[in-house]
Amino acid sequence: MSKDIIIEHAVKRYGNLTIIPDLSAQIRNSELFTLLGPSGCGKTTLLRMIAGFNSIEGGTISFSGQVINKIPAHKRNIGMVFQDYAIFPHLTVEQNIRYGLKEHKVPKPEADARVESIMKLTKIDIYRDRLPENLSGGQQQRVALARAIAIHPDVLLMDEPLCNLDAKLRVEMRGVIRDIQKEIGITTVYVTHDQEEALAISDRIAVMNRGEIQQIASPHTIYTRPYNLFVADFIGHSGFAYAQLKGKGPVRTLDFGNGYSVEMDNIKADAPEGRVIVGIRPEEFCVSKDPSRGFKSHISKSTYLGKYVIYFVDIKGVECPKGEDDAEDVFEISQDLGTATSLLKVGDDVSFEVYPHKINVFDAASGVSLIEGTSHEE
User: Fold this and answer.
1) Helices 108-121 and 93-103: crossing angle, nearest 10°?
2) 204: closest CA among 376, 62, 61, 31?
3) C-beta neighbour count of 30 within 10 angstroms
4) I need a surface site. Which of 2, 69, 98, 226 has the fewest CB within 10 A?
5) Over the stretch 66-78, which tens digit does the pLDDT of each residue have?
6) Whole-angstrom Cα distance, residue 270 to residue 372?
7) What is the pLDDT of residues 122-166, one digit of tens each?
8) CB 161 within 8 Å of CB 32
9) What is residue 90's predicted lDDT score, i.e. its pLDDT?
């Protein structure tokens, strides 16, 4: 029976080193919840705390109201899928799946039925007598998934399960995982550092950094309405520029200081006038119909990506936060080749405007979004 997971003020320390200082989250029953963040942000540590492999130095973790802090890992009724598959090399596909059922003392008739059902669900029944060495990476991962869900766990935990697969197989397997998770309806916590993977399969995503959750939201919200500058910068590609937020009332003005300004009708009512940081994604630019308006730009290089071309653009007269490479005034702009009537070229001088309802505006001091309706958690 699937369960929800409530994490309240969880703390993880190793000696004097605090990995997770104070983390709270609610993972809903039957959802696919992804922990996403850069290496070392604490996502795998948190997963291992849920699993019972890591101790908890503070706070509580509960499964549907039952605190599990002191329950040993083998009694938490979880299924676990690791990045290295961790299937037994000396056992066949069927024997690997059946192993957990023996450990749980499931009666043979029921075990037989479960094994058949799970192998068909994961489409590995034709490989039942093969050893892992005779399976592809994707097939081995299906075996690992089948073994994890055969025991009917309350919670399924997956730690970078696709990181050892090639790019094409990763895309295929993330669809398999998503479909199977929805069919069996089990609460799943999925760890990855791959943004595209997280956006493709998740019901909700928790973006983590330095042991703290920056935002919990649907993939669409995480991408289009990041809660703060970290999320905006980590998810996808954004360029950032300073601007002045002016005026009061329902319609405000963003003044970029280069003669270009845009009106905004979705700024929080209590947002003060003053300096802000504007995040602009490549698809949130458009070529200005009036060359005298917008960002005066020079296309320095381009990258062809099949359906899209990405242009790297030097923008003139706008103050931008410095990045790690000090290329503070370089923005990425995308052009959809399926709808474009003419292509831009390296060396062109072009004026670009932005779509005001798509861009994001952040407080320059706190880095928190000033867009109405944007929240830390949904």
Assistant:
1) 130
2) 31
3) 16
4) 69
5) 999 999 999 999 9
6) 10
7) 999 999 999 999 999 999 999 999 999 999 999 999 999 998 888
8) no
9) 95
pLDDT at position 327 over 50: no
> Could you tell me the domains of the chain?
5-224 (3.40.50.300), 229-363 (no CATH)
Query: Cα angle at 221 between 216 and 224, to 5 degrees?
Result: 130
pTM beyond 0.85, yes or no: yes
As a whole number of angstroms, the distance between CA 170 and CA 77 comes to: 27
**What is the Cα 320 distance to its own chain's centre?**
26
CA 21 to chain centre: 21
End-to-end alpha carbon distance in the chain: 25
For 36, 308, 314, 330, 356, the CA distances from 333, given in Å and listed in that order, are: 25, 10, 11, 10, 16
Task: Work out the widest C-alpha separation in the chain, in whole angstroms.
Answer: 77
Report residue 315 as tokens: 């923008």
